[in-house]
Amino acid sequence: MKTIEKEFFNTFTDFQCLILAHMNRGDINGVTAAHYNIIEFILRKETATGKEVATAFNISQAAISKQLKFLINHDFIIQKQDESDRRKYHLSVTEKGRFIIENSETFRKNITRQTAVILSSQELEQFNHLLGKVLAHLKL
After folding, report:
1. CA–CA separation, 71 vs 36, rounded Å?
2. Sign of the four-CA dihedral 105, 106, 110, 113
3. In the chain, N or C: fewer CB atoms in 10 Å?
4. Which helix (H) or strand (E) holds 81?
């Protein structure tokens, strides 16, 4: 590894540790970006069905059911049967799920504000461009 790559590795490790330490405060180990997006979608709608979630993310109901099962089993969302149509189930976000969305957004806003203070407008623009370029090409 080149010296600059080692420096980047160390800096990125520190940044990753900062993010993971923040995430662990909310007991959200195992939550993926897809899970986060599902929780946020349901929270914004206040209640949703599995079919609505599948449609919103353009995936099959079979594929979404695995994600929903994880979120229900880990108490991020709850599922309640519709009283008038017992074939239908409504999903809503628990306090634990709400914590993830609200705390994550607050964390991102704080990091954004602090970064904007540290970097000049030009540096921030360049950083944003470079980070976008990396994200567009990463295959994880």
Report:
1. 10
2. positive
3. C
4. strand 77-81
